[in-house]
Predict the structure of short-chain-enoyl-CoA hydratase.
Amino acid sequence: MGEKKLVNLTVDDGVAIIIIDNPPLNVLNKEVVACLNSCLEEIEKDKTIVSVVVTGTGERAFMAGADIKEFLELNAPGEAAELSNNNHWVFSRLADLPQPTIAALNGLAYGGGCELTLCCDLRVAEEDVKIALPEINLGLFPGGGGTQRLSRLIGSSRAKEMMFFGEPLGAQEALKLGLVNKVVSKGEALNKSVELAKKLTTKAGKALQAIKQAVDQGTEQSIANGLTLEIKLFDNVFQTEDVKEGVNAFLEKRGANFKHR
Ligand SMILES: C/C=C/C(=O)SCCNC(=O)CCNC(=O)[C@H](O)C(C)(C)COP(=O)(O)OP(=O)(O)OC[C@H]1O[C@@H](n2cnc3c(N)ncnc32)[C@H](O)[C@@H]1OP(=O)(O)O
């Protein structure tokens, strides 16, 4: 009997679903990081994938953060940096996927769990979900990208407040801050996220990827350089068959049938 996989990947009709399965709270340990990495490798190779959903099993946690038990093994200088680096490597691999990604928060997202959701483009949270960066309570602070991605998403002061106090945000508060995009009822995060991911498969895939690239790369530069990038991507997308199909469909008053490639 093969070893239980701690992260499972399914791909169906252009939608990839990554499910973290490390009960009871889906903590991020070395095995989960390694499994997540291989799922991302498969997704990078599969050109049929238009959108990606990430979620956890169970109804308590999307992910309760890094496995604190593993911290006991980190003694010599540099070992914590190696752990942080490994997490960054996988998290950035998720963040750098060209396709739109959606985190389906089936439960709490604490620490590395919150940081993992920040590597997705959208976040759908169930109404009772709590989101926190509580590392300060361990005498630590977020080492999986939270200081950088959260501050860019909700603003420096709100991000510092979350990290200084380590207190959880409820789903509605997170929605108000723009930390989550949609709040759904208990048990509905995955369904709603897959529904959104499927909706994206009816759009032009190259245009979706150009939006993500223009925003993610453009906002890291001056607005002048960002606009130059937008022009370049606009021209690239304009060469695709999908634009011809989109324009003809509009003029012929019919639905467009985009090819996603
Ligand atoms: C780069 C990334 C860094 C990080 O992510 S640092 C870690 C950040 N995360 C945290 O600090 C969260 C710590 N956990 C908690 O605060 C609580 O737990 C929860 C709020 C998540 C859930 O509380 P409740 O429902 O009362 O469950 P419970 O009894 O506290 O936990 C159930 C079992 O799960 C273990 N556990 C919980 N979180 C972690 C974790 N992050 N790493 C390792 N184990 C964890 C506990 O110890 C316990 O275990 P047992 O049943 O054997 O006593």
The mean pLDDT is 96. The longest strand covers residues 7-12. Residues 7-200 form a domain with the 2-enoyl-CoA Hydratase; Chain A, domain 1 fold (CATH 3.90.226.10).
